[in-house]
Amino acid sequence: MIQSRNKSRKRNKRDATTLDERYLERLGELEETTQPDPGEGRHFGTMPDTWMVVQTDPRGQDATLAHLSLGGDTSIKTNHIIEALSEHYNIQEGIDEEAIKSLLERALDRPDSILNSNQVIARAKTAIPGDDGRIDWEGKLNEKRLTESFEIHTALKLDSLEAAMKCNARGFLVFPEQVLAHIYPETEGESGLNIFGEESLIPGRPLPLELGENVHLEDGKIVAGTFGYLGIGEGVLSIVPPLWISEDSMRAVYCHMRLFTRTSVPTEDIIRNTLVNCKVTYGINNRAIEKLCSKRLSAKRKRVLTMARGGPPINGEDTRIEYTFDPDERPGKIMPDGSIDFRERNVVTGVNEDQLLATVHPATEGIKGYTIFNEEINARDGQEYVYEAGENVRTEGNPPAKFFSAVEGNAHVAGETIHVKPIYVINGDVDYETGNIDTTTDVQISGNVKAGFTVESGGTIMVSGSVESGATVVANGDVIVSQGIVGDQTDVVARGLLSMGTIQCKFIQTAGVLAKDTIEVGSYIFNAQVRCGGQVVVHSGGGSRGGSIVGGEGFAANAIEAKNVGSSTTAGTVVGLNIDPVTAIKLAKLRKERRELDRSIELHLRTLGLDTIDNDRIKTIEYNTPKARRAHITEVIAKLYEAKEVRDRVLTEIEPLSEKNTGVEEGAKIEVTGTIYHGAEVHLGQSVLVVDQDIDRSRFYQEDDTVTHRAL
């Protein structure tokens, strides 16, 4: 389409019709003859159409004059443009005045036109980077090897010397004042200026290393400050002394590890100074130091030498008593038939009048110890004990230092008290001929304790025969019965006031037996009430019934050991563990009393035609009862309230005892090496297991407040 030449339109690149114009077009310097809107232009000078457009690098590295319009003002000078650059574009430095002057001259050739240009008119002064810091290591030292060597630092801090010496890393062993490396710190370089007048600096990178313990910088060199292993860990160069020190500070050990290179032999002064620097000053092993400093150690083999040992404290000895007799009672020997052999028990310890019984050695003071750092370790002084004279014993010294027997008799030791009990010997039975016996002495009975008779002793009672039905035997010491304890009304008690309080016998049958400590039975327990504060042990002597607990109740604090519990024909056998046998007895008695009171209350309520105690209904019943029966009903009501009052009191007493009886000692157990039969009950504290089928070879114990068992 042909357009009229007279029609006005804006020039574009397609309008370049001559070779010169196309050339200027490509250079971006084709001048417009019209005056377009300056847009981003900044006005300067005195004429309204005088402006320029300058493009700047965001970092201030250079500035380019894109467009310049003089608007016909031919008075514009170079300095006017420079001032405008400062005012409008904050260009302060690196201005190329010659370039500006050249552009201005071109613009002045056609002052009414716009000069298009890509001429750089300002350029920043470039900063000259500084040099990076560097390290020149001496000898075979380098960062990789020193990183491996640092594993030795870690190993020497382990709690166990054995674990420390498992470290197979190689290391560098360095000496005091040894030059390790030369340091060339980073430089700042020369600063630069951008076109906005801002200073810039490109310093070199700092040294890739920090100096840690026992190394320092001296005249541009890294120097070792002590004897030890050099290493780099987490970018820190340090030296650790070649010592492993035990956690309790009682031992310092020189640890020679594998090395990258052989080293010189350290002098004694170096080793001693190393110990001092580590504050190791006590218990120095001079021979070990001499040995270490006498020859060079292999770089391939590890070795340890103890450099110092602390002195452990020596605790004082407690007051000690030395007896002239054997004070320890031992279990009597269980014979094949289950009977007890007194000769093995050491119950009878005969002494003569004025015999020396014991000598007391006073407690001694402890001797303080010292760590390798010369720190005091307190020692315990010996505990002072005062031994006392009991019956028929005289002393020398205050506090007593020596004890003598005042009479002929048996010597006993109870805690810190020594007694001598005269021996009351009965050659035969305790019966109508001897009568009941109540004595403070030990009692030896060669026969039986007959039915209905009582023997009470302030010492130990030994019966060569049996304790028969209805007899009572109570000792402040132990009770040893060679044969059996028999009878529904028979009671045997070992209080343990003068001894451990144990009972030994061949068998227990339908009797009540209580011991402070252990009850040991040679053959069996049948339908008896047995309780002790130690353990109940039933051996398997005396035939097929040996080792059995059948019927009745057996309770102990620590353990019960038996072959069989219960039987296939007998129900109701109870075995259990509780902390306090006396409490258990009281509790059992109160619970029995409560059951009897509950039955009595139930009977009285049934007579009144009631299910529960209802005060209003009881008053109504009494009021409506005919006179002929009223006296009887009134008596029933009185007995009902009396029984209720007693039951309430019993319940009040049961509650604290139940709480006391709930626990079981840690590790307490019941072991049945044969069979526990169905129908038997296992009580552990308040937990109860009713055995519903026979269980062979089992151990019963408490776990999570329940009774559990596992096979032996």
Short characterization:
This protein is α/β, with parallel strands linked by helices and 712 residues long.
Explain what the structure shows.
The protein is built from ten helices and 51 strands. With 712 residues, the chain is α/β, with parallel strands linked by helices. It folds into four domains: 108 residues, no CATH class; 176 residues, no CATH class; 207 residues, no CATH class; 73 residues, no CATH class. The strands form ten sheets. It has a 22-stranded mixed sheet that branches. Strand 19 and strand 20 form a beta hairpin. The protein is elongated. The N terminus is likely disordered.
Can you lay out the helices and strands and say which pair or pack?
Layout: H1 19-27, E1 42-43, E2 51-56, E3 62-69, H2 78-89, H3 97-109, E4 114-123, E5 134-137, H4 143-155, H5 161-164, E6 172-174, E7 179-184, E8 192-193, E9 199-200, E10 210-211, E11 215-218, E12 221-224, E13 228-233, E14 236-240, E15 243-245, E16 251-256, H6 268-277, H7 286-292, E17 303-309, E18 320-323, E19 333-334, E20 340-341, E21 350-351, E22 356-361, E23 369-370, E24 376-377, E25 388-389, E26 393-396, E27 402-405, E28 409-414, E29 417-421, E30 423-426, E31 437-439, E32 442-445, E33 454-457, E34 461-463, E35 472-475, E36 479-481, E37 484-486, E38 491-494, E39 503-509, E40 512-515, E41 519-532, E42 535-538, E43 548-556, E44 559-562, E45 564-565, E46 574-577, H8 581-608, H9 615-624, H10 627-660, E47 669-676, E48 681-684, E49 687-690, E50 695-703, E51 706-711
Parallel strand pairs: 10-14, 25-29, 30-32, 31-33, 32-34, 33-35, 34-36, 35-38, 36-39, 37-39, 38-40, 39-41, 40-41, 41-42, 41-43, 42-44, 43-45, 43-46, 44-47, 46-48
Antiparallel strand pairs: 1-2, 2-3, 3-4, 5-7, 6-13, 7-12, 8-9, 11-12, 13-14, 15-16, 16-17, 18-22, 19-20, 21-28, 22-27, 23-24, 26-27, 28-29, 47-50, 48-49, 50-51
Helix pairs in contact: 8-10
